[in-house]
Write a structure and sequence with these properties.
With 136 residues, this protein is an alpha+beta fold. It is 52% helix and 20% strand. 26% of the residues are buried.
Length: 136
């Protein structure tokens, strides 16, 4: 089952993973309440959030997650945090739409889960676009 988390919670777990701990280890450390080990890798980790939301955040890392209200900047930031993608190198933005994103179907499925229903993730040829539903 996919867990719904806030954009701030998504930033938190993806920054921890990006710090070098990896998804599985981060989930295990959050579940165990081992905030000190997490903070050794990512000093800005929010201990209160990690403790209060540990079951939800660990499940989000293990099973995938959707974001309750992803903003345009949130989508861009999470493309970088989760996939290492950079604007103007890996995709372009135009009128708050992301275009030209090269991703395989597995990554496209993750993006759909993360950002839909507020954002539409579509394949156009070999590339993806991510468009806010108000623009569809």
């Amino acid at each position: 089952m996919t867990i719904t988390i806030s954009q701030a919670e998504a930033y938190q777990i993806e920054r921890i993973v990006h710090s070098g701990l990896g998804r599985e280890q981060t989930a295990e450390l959050i579940e165990a309440g081992d905030v000190s080990t997490i903070q050794q890798s990512y000093p800005k980790a929010d201990p209160e959030m990690l403790q209060e939301q540990k079951n939800k955040l660990a499940a989000a890392l293990k099973d995938g997650y959707s974001i309750s209200f992803p903003t345009f900047n949130g989508v861009r930031n999470l493309l970088h945090l989760r996939f290492g993608l950079e604007e103007d190198k890996d995709y372009v933005t135009e009128d708050k739409t992301i275009r030209g994103l090269k991703a395989d179907e597995a990554a496209a499925a993750i993006l759909r889960t993360m950002f839909e229903p507020l954002w539409k993730v579509e394949r156009n040829g070999g590339q993806l676009s991510i468009t806010h539903i108000s623009k569809s």
